[in-house]
Structures are given as C-alpha cells and as structure tokens.
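Researcher: We plan to redesign the surface later, but first we want a full-length starting point. Tokens attached.
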C-alpha cells in the first residue's frame, strides 16, 4: 500500500507536485483555501527551467489550448527612456493565473487526485507525509523593505515587445500579452513607511506616473476591473530549505524577487525536485526524514546561486540609491541585461 501525500496549497507548486505524484500512482490530497478560477497578483510570465517540467508532465499542450502565448522579446523602460527591443535567450510562456491554476487543478483531478477547494489546512501542523505549498511567507523582519504587488488585465494596449518592463523610483510594472488579446499589467512597489493607506490606493503607480512612458502606453486601455487584485507584506529575503523543518515547495520554500520573472518556474522546479524522494517515501523505500533532507539538499544546491544573484539584481534595479544608475545601464546595455537574465535562471 502506497503511503499518501497531503499537500497544503493548490497553487502552481502544489498542483504541479500533485500531478507529478499522481502520474506515478501516489495517493495525493490537496487542500486549497480558495476556489478556481481566480485572479492572482502575478506577472503571468513563465520563464526558466520549470517550463521543461511542464512539458514532461504533458501540460504544455493543455496550457496552449487554454490560450498560452509565447513571449520572445523584451524591452526596458525608465520613466522617459526606452531600450531597444531585445530577443529573450529562450521563449517564455504567458497565460493568466485565472486559466493556469484552473487547468492544472482539472489535470490533477482527472488523474484521480483529491482536491478540496475552500479548505484551509493548518500548515504549521504539517508532519510526516505533508508538504507545504501554501505560498509566500509574510515579511516579519521590520528592517526589510515592505513590498506590495498589484495587477489588472486590460485591452487595447499596444505593446512594443512581448514583455515590457517599466522601472520607476517606487518599483516596476511588467506588461505582457496573455490569452484572448488581453494584456496583464502587474507591478511590484516599495511601500512608503509614512504611507498608512491600503496598497490598493497605489493603483496610480500601476497606471504610470504623469508624463511617463508607461502612462502613455496605457492611455487608451480598457481595464477589466474584475481582475484587479493586490497583495502586501511580501518577504523577498531568500531562505535555505535545510533550515526548514518541513518539506516546502514554491514560494512556501522561498520567494525569488518577482522582477526576475522566475517565481513560477521555481515553483515547478521545486515540485520536480520533491517528486522522486516523495515517491520513494510513499513506496516505503526511504523514511520521511530522509526524503525531507534529500529534497532540501537538492533545492538548496539548485537555487542558491540564482537566489543570490536575484537579490542583487532586485536591489540594484529597484533600490532608490542605485536605481537611477543601474536602471539606465539595463536600458542601454544588452550585455548587462543578458547576464542578469542568465544568472537568475
Ligand atoms: C507582483 C508579483 C509579480 C510576479 N510576477 C511573476 C512573473 O512574471 N513570473 C513568475 O514566474 N512569477 C511571478 N511572480 C511570483 C509567482 O506569482 C509565485 O512565485 C508563484 O505564484 C508561486 O506559486 P506557489 O504555488 O508557490 O504559491 P501560490 O501561487 O501563492 O499558491 C499558494 C496557494 O496556497 C493556498 N493556501 C495558502 N495557505 C493555505 C492553507 N493554510 N490551506 C490551504 N491552502 C492554502 C493559497 O490559496 C494559494 O492558492 C510574481 C509575484 C508577485 C508578487
């Protein structure tokens, strides 16, 4: 009898892991606090090695059928300067989280997985056979800068590249085309400590400061108000898996700065790493502590350098002291941008 695996959180990491385990006949239950489909704050730009895991799970076609759009080019913008359009070293995949999470949930169920929507599990009680895939941690260190994210879909937004990155003194806004001709407008912003208003009040930042190239880009946009969402209290400090007492995947393990566009890939990659030891645990080949250690070791080896570079990239691009110099360099220098792209994948 295979031992069951229980996953707390039916986001991308939890669902990809559940699908990988179900393909090998492991009994899996996922508890998801929310319901599908749902909008989530996310750039909806999948870029990195996790794309290969999606293909290996046979999900590439499923996402293409849901309208996933390949992205091949990128352009950077400061408030008043634009970089040339550059080719991405390898294509990314753009699909709304509305579609992506729901399609993966369907795939998991069709493989015989048990998925309980609207059920919040006690993640801290997770023990043997339990995996945390419950998403980002809240920032607890008051010395950390506070970040909040906003997103909205829009129509009638002419893009000069498949991904546009608009950097300002408060953060960045990414624009990319998703299914049905809509454009995802998603931003991450530093919270001003003196500003006690709710993050949703920062909507003006998402739409571009007066006179900015972003504001011009969005001047004729028709917004889908139902897709507007916000998230606050993000902790972007990297965490090593070895120090965690539980098996964690995706943002529950560590969050890579969103400006890299690699968080979803990391969620898929950590699920890919976790699957073989969990299968061995389920079939009685190894103990739970052994499985946990194998997953943590492999995650740390795979992600340490990437998280290190991502932290510095994020700081250089978005910290007020470096931002002006570094953002200008990224706008101008193809070489610098390519290095940043490769080191954060
Ligand atoms: C502003 C911003 C922009 C981003 N842009 C990009 C981008 O362009 N490209 C990219 O690759 N990544 C991007 N990311 C990161 C990406 O969104 C995350 O890395 C990804 O969603 C992680 O997936 P996950 O499954 O680990 O977590 P999530 O997708 O957050 O899923 C966690 C799930 O767990 C559920 N849950 C939580 N607690 C419980 C509980 N106790 N019981 C049951 N369920 C629970 C939640 O409801 C949720 O569905 C961005 C993030 C932000 C904030």
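Model: Full-length starting sequence:
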């Amino acid at each position: 009898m295979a031992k069951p695996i229980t996953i707390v959180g039916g986001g991308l990491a939890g669902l990809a892991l559940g699908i990988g385990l179900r393909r090998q006949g492991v009994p899996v239950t996922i508890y998801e606090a929310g319901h599908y489909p749902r909008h989530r704050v996310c750039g909806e730009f999948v870029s990195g090695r996790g794309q290969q895991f999606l293909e290996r799970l046979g999900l590439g076609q499923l996402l293409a059928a849901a309208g996933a759009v390949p992205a091949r080019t990128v352009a950077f913008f400061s408030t008043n300067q634009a970089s040339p359009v550059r080719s991405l070293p390898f294509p990314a995949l753009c699909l709304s989280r509305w579609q992506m999470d729901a399609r993966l949930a369907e795939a998991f169920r069709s493989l015989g997985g048990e998925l309980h929507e609207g059920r919040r599990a006690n993640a801290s009680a997770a023990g043997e056979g339990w995996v945390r895939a419950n998403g980002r941690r809240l920032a607890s260190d008051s010395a950390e800068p506070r970040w909040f994210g906003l997103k909205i879909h829009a129509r009638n937004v002419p893009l000069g590249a498949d991904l546009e990155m608009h950097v300002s003194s408060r953060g960045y806004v990414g624009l990319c085309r998703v299914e049905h001709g809509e454009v995802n407008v998603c931003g991450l912003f530093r919270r001003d400590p003196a500003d006690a208003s709710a993050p949703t009040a920062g909507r003006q930042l998402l739409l571009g400061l007066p006179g900015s190239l972003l504001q011009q880009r969005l001047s004729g946009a028709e917004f889908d108000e139902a897709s507007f969402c916000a998230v606050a209290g993000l902790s972007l400090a990297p965490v090593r898996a070895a120090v965690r007492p539980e098996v964690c995947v995706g943002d529950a393990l560590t969050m890579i700065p969103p400006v890299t566009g690699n968080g979803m890939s990391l969620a898929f990659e950590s699920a890919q790493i976790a699957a073989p030891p969990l299968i061995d645990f389920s079939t009685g080949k190894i103990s739970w502590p052994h499985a946990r250690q194998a997953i943590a070791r492999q995650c740390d080896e795979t992600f340490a350098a990437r998280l290190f570079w991502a932290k510095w990239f994020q700081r250089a691009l978005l910290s007020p002291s470096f931002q002006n110099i570094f953002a200008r360099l990224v706008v101008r220098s193809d070489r610098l941008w390519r290095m940043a792209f490769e080191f954060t994948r």
